[in-house]
Amino acid sequence: MLTWMAYAILVSLVLAIAALCAEHLARRRRAASRWYWLIAITTSLLIPTAMSSISIKVPQVFSPTVSQKVVALRQVTSAHLSPLTWIDVTIAPSRLETMDAVLKRGWCVASLALSFLLFVSALHLHSRKRKWEKGTVAGTAVYISENVGPAVVGLIRPRIVVPTWLTHSSLAQQSAVISHEKSHIAAGDPQLLAICLCLIVLMPWNFPIWWQLRRLRCAIEIDCDARVLKGGQDFTTYGETLIAVGERQSRYIGSVAGMSESRSFLERRLRIMTHKAVKPRLITAAFLVCSSTALVVFAAQVSPPDMTQPSDDHQYIHLAPDIVDRFVGTYKANEFSVLRVTRDGDRILTTFTGERTIENFPESATQIYAPSVKGTISFDIDQQGHVTRAVLHQFGNTLEMQPIDLASAQQIEAFVADKIKTQTATPGSEAALRSLIGGLVAGNPNYAELSPALANATREQLPRLRESLNRLGTLQTLTFIGVGGKGWDVYQARFEHGFTIWRLALLSNGIIDGALVTSGP
Prior knowledge:
By secondary structure, the chain is of the alpha+beta class. The chain contains 13 helices and 18 strands. It has helices at residues 2-29, 34-53, 93-129, 171-187, 189-201, 207-230, 235-247, 263-274, 282-301, 321-324, 406-422, 429-442, 452-472, and strands at residues 55-58, 69-72, 133-137, 140-145, 151-153, 159-163, 329-334, 337-344, 347-352, 358-364, 367-370, 375-381, 387-394, 397-404, 475-483, 489-495, 498-506, 512-519. The strands form four sheets. An eight-stranded antiparallel barrel has the order 7-8-9-10-11-12-13-14. A four-stranded mixed beta sheet has the order 3-4-6-5, covered by helices on one side. A hairpin with a 5-residue loop joins strand 12 (375-381) and strand 13 (387-394). It comes from Caballeronia mineralivorans PML1(12). The chain crosses the membrane at residues 6-23, 35-56, 104-125, 192-211.
């Protein structure tokens, strides 16, 4: 996720520079420039998303009998331009997964917070509109406010709001202001700004897009000035009106199209209006066009990080839906867990009870691989095409799972859900955990009380576990604190010099099938 975010920021930055070159050329020709920034904002969202996730099927024109080749758009980019070449990705998988989860949650929170702020801002504006007086300025119906405007408010039925001081100004200045705001309405500027704000909600952490939005607002005002003057508005009167507006700053009412902006920007608008349109020299125009085009091509060639496949040597194949459907079903992992295998289009998804859904990729007609958890599931298939056994291979351990019917799977899941709801410990789990901790401290756990996979993991980690537990001193209390999301019992083990949190899965035959420990102070 971190590398993908860096990739999206780079693409947005390059597109912003491309739009800046195009805007500079448009300014010299007195042409509209806001569309360049709209395109920059839109493509800053589309290119990273499309290049990372879209695949296309390339037909075999000369060999119709050969199946179509699936090509991911990222394959047509340059790997030398990938953020993976700049960011250290040699991070432990557990840390990387935790970081990704934090970034995803932060992304969701930021988008929701921005959406909430926009919603509150809209409600606040609607509330203030109800307090404004209605009147007529230069023959146009407007809202009259004490200190807001000139601006356009509303999207479906946009209306002009002007400050009270404008009603006491000359008719020429009133006409200039109303002409400016009417031009905004005619050009659809309020709707354009609203669309771009909604787009930014989708990627609020991408700071180049915020700068693009700022440039878009400036371009909207400059384009509006050009339209008003082209429509016959007197230049001197219009310039004096801009100065008058700049001397009386409006209260902020959100991102709306309007004549009232910062004084520095009003000065810039005046300078632009005083410059006559000039035909750029051929070499200058060619340079700006080529630069803008080259930057867009560069942005499209930046290679996104592969968010689906691992960096190892696993080779994937494409399987027909009817072959994948052989895997689809439910498998019993143990008394607490069921594996569900489903197909979503061309995607193969697996979900263990209480865990997140994982995407898998076929390596053969009987084997799939999940790069995010580095686990392989192989399927034994009989002559009738039915799965007789599924085996999970992960971190040197194997877990055999038998296919079961949906009703049996739902019964196991209901048992786990009820256990979580009632928060009741499995009978005998406390005694089993005491025995396990005592064996680890002594350096000779009873492996007969552990499942084969847990026994192998315990043998590998025994020196480290024993050292950590011995540093904590003698076990004093063992307290049941609840049932976790997978139906495992959770205990707090308090020692002389700290405590640990244990999660335990005890089967009905007294065998510990799973155990996890985290350290405390």
